[in-house]
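Q: A reviewer asked whether we had any structural model of the full assembly, not just the individual parts. We don't, so I'm hoping you can provide one. Inputs are below.
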Amino acid sequence: MNEQASPFSPAQHAGPTVIPEHTVEIVSDSGEGAQKAGQIFGAMSAKMGNGVWTVEIIPAEIKPPARSKAGASGIRIRFGEKQITNMGDEADLVLAFNEQVLYGRIANGAYRPGTVILLENKWASHPDDTVKAQYAAGLAELNKRGFVVREMALEQACLAHTSNPRVGKNMFVLGMLCWIYDRDLARARAEINGVFGRKGSAVVARNVELLEGGYQFARSTLTDLHYHVPPRPNLPPQVVTNGNEAIGLGVMGAGIELVSMYPITPATSASHYLAREIERIGGVVHQAEDEIAAIGFAVGASYAGKTACTITSGPGMALKTEFMGLAVMSEVPLVMVLVQRGGPSTGLPTKVEQGDLLSAIYGTPGDAPKIVLAAATIEECFHLVITARQLAETFRTLVILLTDANLATGVSPWDRPTLQAEWMAPPLDQAPWKKGLAPYAWDPATGLSPRPIPGQRDGMYVLTGLAHTERSKVAYDPESNELGCQMRSLKLETLRQGLAKPVVHGDPTGDLLVVGWGSTLGAIEEAVDRVRAKGGKVSSVHLRFLSPMAPGLDEIMAGFRQVMTVEINYSDPHTMAHRRLAQLAQLLRMEHLVDVDSYSQVQGQPLSPGKIEAELWKRLKALSEEAA
Amino acid sequence: MNEQASPFSPAQHAGPTVIPEHTVEIVSDSGEGAQKAGQIFGAMSAKMGNGVWTVEIIPAEIKPPARSKAGASGIRIRFGEKQITNMGDEADLVLAFNEQVLYGRIANGAYRPGTVILLENKWASHPDDTVKAQYAAGLAELNKRGFVVREMALEQACLAHTSNPRVGKNMFVLGMLCWIYDRDLARARAEINGVFGRKGSAVVARNVELLEGGYQFARSTLTDLHYHVPPRPNLPPQVVTNGNEAIGLGVMGAGIELVSMYPITPATSASHYLAREIERIGGVVHQAEDEIAAIGFAVGASYAGKTACTITSGPGMALKTEFMGLAVMSEVPLVMVLVQRGGPSTGLPTKVEQGDLLSAIYGTPGDAPKIVLAAATIEECFHLVITARQLAETFRTLVILLTDANLATGVSPWDRPTLQAEWMAPPLDQAPWKKGLAPYAWDPATGLSPRPIPGQRDGMYVLTGLAHTERSKVAYDPESNELGCQMRSLKLETLRQGLAKPVVHGDPTGDLLVVGWGSTLGAIEEAVDRVRAKGGKVSSVHLRFLSPMAPGLDEIMAGFRQVMTVEINYSDPHTMAHRRLAQLAQLLRMEHLVDVDSYSQVQGQPLSPGKIEAELWKRLKALSEEAA
Amino acid sequence: MFGLKRDWTVTLPERYFTFEDYEGGEARWCPGCGDHAILTAVQRICRDEQLPPEQVVSVSGIGCSSRFPHYMGTYGFHGLHGRALPVAAGVKARRPELKVWVATGDGDCCSIGAGHWIHAIRYNMDMTVMLFDNAIYGLTKKQTSPTSPKGLSTNTHPRGAWLPPLNPTQATLGFTNVSFVAQTVDWNPVHLHATLKKAYEHKGLSFVRILQRCPTYTDKVFDDLQSDPRKILVLEHERGVPVDPALDRVFPTRQAHDPSDMGAARALAARDDVFAIGLLFQDESCPRYEDFTRRGLDMSVDDKLAGLDAALDRFAL
Amino acid sequence: MFGLKRDWTVTLPERYFTFEDYEGGEARWCPGCGDHAILTAVQRICRDEQLPPEQVVSVSGIGCSSRFPHYMGTYGFHGLHGRALPVAAGVKARRPELKVWVATGDGDCCSIGAGHWIHAIRYNMDMTVMLFDNAIYGLTKKQTSPTSPKGLSTNTHPRGAWLPPLNPTQATLGFTNVSFVAQTVDWNPVHLHATLKKAYEHKGLSFVRILQRCPTYTDKVFDDLQSDPRKILVLEHERGVPVDPALDRVFPTRQAHDPSDMGAARALAARDDVFAIGLLFQDESCPRYEDFTRRGLDMSVDDKLAGLDAALDRFAL
Ligand SMILES: Cc1ncc(C[n+]2csc(CCOP(=O)(O)OP(=O)(O)O)c2C)c(N)n1
Ligand SMILES: Cc1ncc(C[n+]2csc(CCOP(=O)(O)OP(=O)(O)O)c2C)c(N)n1
Ligand code: SF4
Ligand code: SF4
Ligand SMILES: [Mg+2]
Ligand SMILES: [Mg+2]
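A: Here is a predicted structure for the entire assembly that you could use as a starting point for your response.
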């Protein structure tokens, strides 16, 4: 904590309203620095002990034109007195640099009647009449929708502190937010110093001046907008990352020494992070010529006894399909991180979807049992990479770790992990192989077998994707093929039997059970909690293991009148008599013969707790009508 | 019929035993002509009105060494008084040129105690002692297994007719079979003439002499082996093909003008056939640089308004995954024939499996609804290509037609189709496009839309794999993505509603219902018939549509106490508490929430009716014990 | 276009196309991106040639450059990353009359699509292939491409790209059945247009590598060439890309080069002191694959049915 | 191998390997198949170099030729069609000490694997790549390969292959960072062995195209060269493949060729009147990719944990 009492310190002002949480957006044209301001605000809030979830609003084009709907660039920060696990519902407060960039957000349902919008008003007096007219129309539209618009001369006010308000106003806005949310200005100055320090003290000073100017401006013009969000008590040490950085840290934590990839959104930023950092653990990133080569390179390295992973998204996985089959067939340990995006095909490359579950499990021709996990939080992005590596080597197979664009780009604090040497891959075993021991000496009880590594004397064998005996000899006879298939399948059962029963969130019995997987965890549990708080008998369970699925789900489901999944992938609307259901629902039905329904959307957006809550009430109502 | 009375005509001999059917194998080293002899025998039998199924026994290597287990090369001919739909159970009669080649067949369960084996005995006096010893050991082994071995000096006997019995003995054996099965020698001569005619009359004469020699030899030495298999009455005109030739004919029948492929077993022979023949309908075969290019080329041609297909097997489909997604997303009509083989990975390239069902349906990342059909007979290989083309164009999507190595290599007569001009793709539409009509003007009731073709004035649009509007404009907004997903899914429902309820083979209710798909049809129905004949209450239903599935299965299944699938793909053995089931079983459970069990094998072999029958009795017994 | 006749009339085509007819949606590349200039050049050629827009198909993969079809007012196919060439080949296979432009990036063509590149050159189907070489992965935001210069700092090689860059022109000249290879730069519209026009006119696959500025991610890679235009070596030949006099001041360095001389072409492609622009190699005698794939196009349904009948006869009992 | 010392003793290695140590299962290629000779040559080199079998990895794709690893007594990887090179590169990436032999067919390398081929050359990792060029798809039974001569009747082109064959050597010489290219023929064991030995000794990726007879499907394609051995042009140079005097009678046609002369190498590769055998090009100075990928190999677990801790620090609140 900064010791000096600042002239602007919150203590000097009379009572801000205490609120449990708020969701703020800064929306601008690309290049106006909204994201930087929001990131600093998020980091500050986290350091002050709030739960925080920030997510960037990224335009589809690289340099979109100014004042365009598709060009909206910005950031959403949700922060509160508890842990924040998702981007939340409609925003409470919006800072907007023009009215055009709001349309896309409105279409995404980001605002509700009552949302306060602080809107730059210089457009009202713009020399170009079209702009003027657009602004007037926009204003009318915003008001019509019930938003509380406050027009403000932001750039004008910045002029007191900078000659180039277009570039400087982001720090001005940061200052405003510091007033509104009762943030410690000293902390803001420290953050600015951290971010701009490299650019020299003049830059820092200019930005600090803007910050303080914004603070003063808000204090004098927005006296009614003044809140306090209490901190979380007794927090263990935290790190703040997005999901892809957490994946990168997990790769390092697992001691994976080779990341073999081909760029693809939204997976690539994990590799960017690793390209900068993996040398810290002596690893390397290989950018291959395509996805097939990327997985092939990783498979080669793994065959040679080195831990390797590949990181990709949907179209990349499609190309890796054949090699995935080889890894399963020849029992090469391999971790594949799949950061899902909107599909099918090129689909919505930057948007959120959980649409690759079935193709991850079933996408490989023939019977190719593999392990499929899904991270539910940013923290799990870290830990499950480590788990995945252990599973891959123990079970000598392909492990797919699913995440999605929601986790990949969300930024949130999580408990700093206590590092463990056992997480790391063990050093290369070059001791002589036991003479005569087969390269696939399958334990008939588990399907597991030890693995010879090139360099191990007497371990020589030829890996093949053809059907083979335990000696890895090509074999076309019925028994060998059947035995190999069985052993590969048995490994999944061995793992399944060792898995803990999933934990129910809420009461163990009730009317409605929600089953989820992946990044929807936070939103689902928040919705469940809200409904439960109002007396609805709903609980949820969230799966990390999708293949194999942990035992015990049968009993859990039996405790509820209805079971449904909540997912971000396609299902037919309820108006259709014969519906194609969401992907986990299909899996649960098949495994458990339970009439699992699904609620899902493919809007390229995370599901908000509010949307889920509404759906849960609808289902509960239907159930009670049914009962009546 | 040949008018001349032959000195060897069956009429001259007293009463052959009349039998309904027999299964014969000729097994030899590679290059000894067993297949040629068997093919002629099969063709003759078909022409004489028998039902016939022949299947070649192919060694895994291109030129395997002589007298080796893995080198067995030969043919199985099953023929009978009714239509023959599969390769049957254990053989009744075997002609073997050495004892070594029998071991692999025995491992495949091709023979039963009582199977008569006519075995070349020259090995007994072979100069090499190892060979002599092998022969003695083999003989003992064969006898121990209860086969009825008759040693014969075949090559010796051939010497009367040729100086090179190794090459000539196949025709000698053909002659023997003509005696044993009471075949018309004149017809055999005619076949020989057809096959060897191009090589000149001397060759024909030499082979005819061997034929007649073999006939006489058998007549004098195998007086007790003399059977008659009555012909089928009133046969419509027949053609005799294997499944891949039928596919090739179907491609031509559909007017598909471009076959874009990359060689892969067992699909390639369909393309070989087409490479020779497709110019008859003005089409071409493109051998691409890889499978990705093969499907891309076909997609390009189809985009340009030309009917195209691609033909492949498992590893090839794996590589096509990404393009399959594009075809679905951008609604490019495309037929993909998938001739399944043993998997996963390179697996068992020449062997039978039905292991690609789930990956065909689910293998594409994101939600990619497509039409998946499976041919159940060689005849359907022809007709379903035509259906597939019509569906692809009507529903503007990817249609996968599944066959497998069993159909691909089985040879059998089927009703010669009456050609119809409507089967053929219509000529290229180059009339101006309706101005303003969107390139995806989805009918909200069906999801269908008309398709603009390059060259059509005013139809210009840019196809894209990104989410898009009905105008094919890239769109990242929630509504557009949701609408597109819905329309693509709706098409499947539109088709589903138009599908006829599957037909039950057997009684509409009973104890056990077998559900099958693909090449197992003949074996399943034969097994069901046998069980029913003995009083078992079992019926079967066979699916041609796997995605979407025809309506009405619910009601059908409801009529039975137990439902099971019979498939040639992997399922865990019954000894495992938690079983992974066969692929169709998984689909049925998911769609219908019925406790569908499965019986399946991955032995690289077709399922024989006998094996299925045994399994059905086992299930019936368990059911009756359960009831008791 | 409109030649005055003896009687002072001109023949007006039934339809006359303006530049706008070749415009699709507003081009959404970054300001200053070289792609804009390439688009304009192609649109101009279409206009000059009065190509009915419905007879033109532009095909691309995925990348900034591959957005090209969206900005054309013609038919277009914006397909999969790396797969523009097989799709374009498929389009031509049975529709040889369509005019095909292929837009592909240095990642699209030389990395993920490299296998198709070799084979498309060998197929030599009549189309114009434009390699938008910005030495970077643009759309995915600054990863190393095969043509990134050694040492370039990118998001996948933050400490500098490791390997010497692949030379797409040199590579292409080593493939088989290569019939047309040219180079140009996006920042000289005159030479760009002349090169693409020459390429368009070539019967067979014309491969044009265009150095394309990406101010957003590789604003410095062509600095050398831009700041010292003498490093641009303009190839001159009567059968080459016509050299407009307007270029005299801009690019003073010249060299005579006979485009039928493969050895010289390869030597030129390999030079790293200068960058040769113009036509490096042309051979119109190379077989074109569509001459095989078009076979049978004119067959009637009756003929086809008869053909199928004959095919069935061979299997008849 | 065993040099006599001053005291008339020899140093015997702890382990001495015989030819049999490099033999795997019985080679199941057709009698007369050229693959047998290549296998023997490699086994001889392993024996002569006394490579511990566990330090050798042979990697292949799918095809007749790709059965190669199964017949070696070393570690082996018989992977996917066309993907030998990425796998081999992955093996080397973090195990640079392993000796890697790659067996790939003309379909495997030049058709489905063509993209990897270009890039493997550019990576220039230390391995010996043997292109078994039999001008056909052998394993799948006689389909056209990129190197099939025009007009060859195959199962996919029963009326003759349409296009001129791709020249793998010429293509490779056009790629970037190419460091070793040689050619030889399977039917001369002496030159085959000498060439592969030279390739093995090269530090970097050595690409050796071997004309390989397939008596089963292309028994005639090399007839020309076999019936008229003067068409074999033996390259001679002090830094080239040593030419055994035994070759004098067999292949009388000779040419001096400096393997550092790329221009001459390309010209030799392009000749179709003769087939040049020996070393066409070598440049040991090309960067090797494993020198980048091996970085950090020696880091201890403690160092790694400390590194990770520092990485976490950057995100700490
Ligand atoms: C299968 C697949 N892999 C990766 C991607 C991601 N991706 C899109 S464009 C691109 C590279 C673009 O670079 P380039 O081809 O040079 O085009 P540019 O954007 O520079 O014009 C990549 C890797 C993808 N869309 N599909
Ligand atoms: C993905 C995939 N496509 C196709 C095949 C079938 N296939 C196996 S080997 C081969 C070609 C072999 O030719 P080549 O590489 O020249 O090797 P050769 O047999 O001639 O030695 C093909 C097409 C396959 N195994 N996998
Ligand atoms: S990122 Fe580069 S290549 Fe892409 S549009 Fe912008 S300037 Fe052009
Ligand atoms: S088919 Fe040809 S390449 Fe294959 S093993 Fe036989 S001879 Fe060799
Ligand atoms: Mg680029
Ligand atoms: Mg070959």
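A: Points you may want to mention in the reply: Chain B touches chain C through 68 residues (CB under 8 Å). The CA atoms of residues 622 and 628 of chain B lie 10 Å apart.
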